[in-house]
Amino acid sequence: MTNPALPATDVRIAAIDIGSNSVRQIIADVSPAGQIRVVDEMKAMPRLGEGLESTGALSPASIDAAVLAVQRMVTLARQLGAARIEIVATSAVRDASNSATFTAQIHAATGEPVRVLSGDEEALLCFRSALAHFELGAGRTVVMDIGGGSLELVLAKDGLIERVASLPFGAVRLTERFLTPIVRPRRVRALRAHVREGLKKAVPVKDWRGAQVIGSGGTFTNLAGMVLARQHVSVPSPHGTRITRVEVEHVLDWLQRLDSEERQLVPGLNPARADIIVAGLAVAAEVLARFDPRDLLASGYGIREGLLLEAARVTPVVADPGTARERSVREFAERCHYEEPHSRQVQALSLQLFDALASRLDLTPEDRRALADAALLHDVGYHINYEKHHKHSFHLISHAELLGMTPSEQIVIAHVARYHRGAPPKAKHRGFGQLDRAMRERIVKLSALLRFADGMDRGHVAAVGSLSVKWTSDSLRVLVQEAEGATSVRLECWGASRKRHLLEAVLGRPVVVVMPDGTEVSADDDGESE
User: Fold this and answer.
1) Beta strand pairing call for 11-18 and 84-89
2) pLDDT for the residue 7
3) Beta partners for residue 471, in sequence order
């Protein structure tokens, strides 16, 4: 089967990861630059690692379930026209006495070979994935992946690997050893002591304290999901969530005191992982204690994405801080066919306003970056249609794969873009009212700046060269200068004045737009939508 819609330079690859807890497939189109466009996904949970600690072998029941799952996945991959199908197996299969029998059954059922990864190979695929999705070009980074059977660690400096370690600290393995049949706090303490001792022997601390730590695997996506649920933040993916060490310890302490039925009801936690999440978090907590980072970054990508890049022969570019975010925002805007001159003009004017007003609005450099991204993306909703394009912008941005930012930051950017026109932010609006107060206040302030700047390019001709502000006893005066070659900024000044009301509410004073000749602009309400 072929796919005529697939660009000639892209390759469709299916990656199947046979883990100790689950079998996962991702089918995606991979570009030469390493962009991954997911076509389909499939997941099964045969729990191959269950009982392995005591018997040393994969159980017949789990083998049958895993073979059937892989058979379905290979069938789907072929039906969707995958040019390559890559199947790898990790810790459980690697350690099992009947590993060869299992992989032979897979090959007989599907016609595809299975590559059993070493611990180091598993770690390197996770690192390849992290390199493609995070900014690792400066400083020290620890990438950890917690699977069902093992913990993989990669220590890298400026994007270059210095050390790789694979340790038998998987969530299924440790649950069976320490937390079966029931989770008890004293047994969690024993588990942590066991992991702590192993880390001391295997991983150096010198020079690595305070390193950036990235967590890959279901333990971390579920941890991020729980943290975001507690913050009432709803996002399509937890990728990029920042979680403090204190939050990790709080969630771990909370979960270990719940019974298994109660854990299955925890918002943000996949019920199928409820029985092994405590062990996974205990391992994560000990790794964090070992390296003492400021926080943890959760990755939504892991072995499968690394396998896709490897199969496509793509070597991710090491990104310096800020570059991955800037690149992914720009590429997303380009895919939405944005009007670049207008977007760049609105971005420039927004940032001029920000720089003039940030101290009075108590805004931070992080706010400035969010405003810059929202300004560049505010009109991407035109990609759907003009009608209510601001709402389409919100939907597109909130579901985009944007690197170098947390899910919460992405939601802020989406809301700021959404409120560049139309009704101002209101608590009754779906999604906005559920956010915490601090986040809502950020959105309101940044939206006020973006609305005003968008009005200042009402004709989409970049007529305004610069803005400056002057505070008086009773108002804020915005002084407008024409761009070189512009003949008039009357329309732009009128447009900004029409969209000044939210900025006035934020500043608590009238905003007066002043043309280059000193004329104050008045915009009467003539019914035009903002």
Assistant:
1) parallel
2) 56
3) 476
144 and 70 both lie in a single domain: no
Residue 223 pLDDT: 98
Dihedral pair phi/psi, residue 477, rounded to 5°: -100, 125
* pTM of the predicted protein model: 0.81
> What pLDDT band is residue 526 in, cutting at 50, 70 and 90?
very low
Spatial distance between the Cα atoms of 460 and 495, rounded to a whole number of angstroms: 11
List 40's β-bridge partners, or say none: 27
CB 325 within 8 A of CB 404: yes
Detail the DSSP E strand segments found in 106-211.
115-116, 140-146, 151-157, 160-167
Query: What is the CATH classification number for the domain harbouring 218?
Result: 3.30.420.150
Q: Which domain holds residue 448?
A: 323-521
CA dist., res. 301 & res. 228, Å (int): 18
Query: Which residues lie across from 514 on neighbouring strands?
Result: 479, 520
Q: How far is CA 449 from CA 343, 348, 468, in A?
A: 14, 11, 13
Contacts of 495 (CB under 8 A, 6+ apart): 454, 455, 456, 457, 458, 459, 523
The last residue of one of the domains, among 87, 116, 145, is 116
CA distances for 139 relative to 153, 158, 211, 292, angstroms: 17, 5, 7, 15
Distance separating alpha carbons of residues 110 and 279, to the nearest angstrom: 34
Residue 216, classed as helix, strand or coil, is strand
End-to-end Cα separation, the chain, in angstroms? 49
Q: Which residue has the tokens 């079966």?
A: 180
Domain count for the chain: 3
Say how far apart CA 512 and CA 360 lie, in whole Å: 17
DSSP 344: H
Residue 305 in tokens: 């994405």
